[in-house]
Design brief:
The protein is built from 9 helices and no strands. The protein has 266 residues and is mostly helical. Helix 2 runs antiparallel to helix 3 and helix 3 packs antiparallel against helix 7.
Length: 266
């Protein structure tokens, strides 16, 4: 069974966009934001693209574990290209950002049919620590909400400066509160309750969050290296949270069957 053409398009598009981004550096933003796009490109090209390529190749393509990895990669792509599409200063690759966002979103939604969700949920071990993992994801969602809403309240009601600028803060907070927080909280609650959708949504949300926290950690290190931030910068925030979320994701994936089945056509 061949992989979905949509997934191949997403993989090829991500590889082209990130390679061109690193080679041509088309970003017209201020230095610290442009550096963030380059760090993002590096993580996507060197980690996410190989991960998705591995999940699309060979017999592993039919294994539930690798299907979840594909879904997590698509979740990352949707979230990632929403940032590029809405946040990057207009540049030569804007049409590619829009196309990748749309194609990744369609691919993700088409892969989340109710039948596949039920089958994927059945591939999880009964020993999956759903309450620990679900509770962690909800805690992360609550923490993100508290931080973004707290900064918003201080800026609006106490005239405190927003990090970076109000426009940058609004973009990041809106995407986190609109995408990441609902996925983490709903996935965590449903996983705690052992609902079929919870196993899948929690896995996708955890992987997407883990990958993006890695991006933030890399960008924090790059900012320190370039002299745009003082040591330790934001590393004490993003690195531990990223490591914990990576661990959560690995535990979830570890409890999924690795045996190929005929249930996965994506």
């Amino acid at each position: 069974m061949r992989p979905s053409p949509l997934l191949v398009l997403v993989l090829g598009g991500m590889a082209v966009q990130t390679a061109l981004g690193l080679i041509l550096n088309p970003y017209r933003d201020v230095d610290w934001i442009a550096l963030g796009w380059l760090g993002n490109d590096a993580v996507t090209l060197l980690l996410v693209c190989p991960l998705l390529a591995a999940a699309l190749s060979g017999p592993r393509r039919l294994a539930p574990r690798w299907h979840l990895i594909r879904l997590g990669s698509l979740g990352y792509a949707v979230y990632n290209y929403a940032f590029y599409m809405l946040g990057a200063t207009l540049n030569a690759m804007f049409p590619l950002y829009v196309a990748l966002f749309v194609v990744a979103l369609i691919a993700l939604l088409s892969a989340l049919s109710e039948t596949r969700v039920a089958r994927l949920a059945q591939s999880f071990s009964a020993k999956t620590p759903v309450r620990v993992l679900g509770g962690y994801l909800v805690a992360v969602a609550i923490g993100l909400s508290a931080v973004w809403l707290g900064i918003w309240a201080l800026h609006v009601f106490a005239n405190r400066p927003a990090p970076g600028s109000p426009e940058v803060f609004r973009l990041v907070a809106a995407l986190d509160l609109g995408f990441m927080v609902p996925a983490l909280s709903i996935g965590g609650v449903l996983l705690w309750c052992r609902k079929p959708l919870g196993y899948v949504l929690a896995s996708v949300a955890a992987m997407q969050a883990a990958l993006y926290l890695l991006v933030l950690s890399v960008n924090s290190a790059l900012a320190i290296h370039r002299g745009l931030a003082r040591w330790p910068g934001e590393l004490p925030i993003w690195a531990p949270l990223g490591l914990a979320t990576i661990a959560c994701t690995l535990v979830l994936i570890r409890h999924v069957s690795s045996n190929p089945t005929a249930s996965d056509g994506a």
